[in-house]
Design brief:
By secondary structure, this protein is mostly helical. Helices cover 81% and strands 0% of the residues. It contains 3 helices and no strands. It comes from Leptolinea tardivitalis.
């Protein structure tokens, strides 16, 4: 999913996707430990998605305060 597509999501959708991504990272880590995961490159990709979601949520959180400073 591209950043432009992520920005179109509502805040609640972002929170849901963030929770899903965190769950996916946990599942991937368990699969690595048990030897079931062959494509380990999915872990850093998912972690980057988590960072994108968190960044956008933080931007939205700070946006009202920034407008009030003007």
């Amino acid at each position: 999913m591209k950043n432009s597509e992520i920005r179109l999501l509502s805040t609640e959708e972002l929170r849901t996707k963030l929770q899903d991504a965190r769950q996916e990272v946990m599942n991937l880590r368990f699969q690595v430990v048990t030897g079931q995961l062959t494509d380990t490159s999915r872990i850093p990709i998912t972690r980057r998605m988590i960072a994108r979601y968190e960044t956008l949520l933080r931007e939205r959180e700070l946006a009202p305060a920034k407008e009030g400073d003007k």
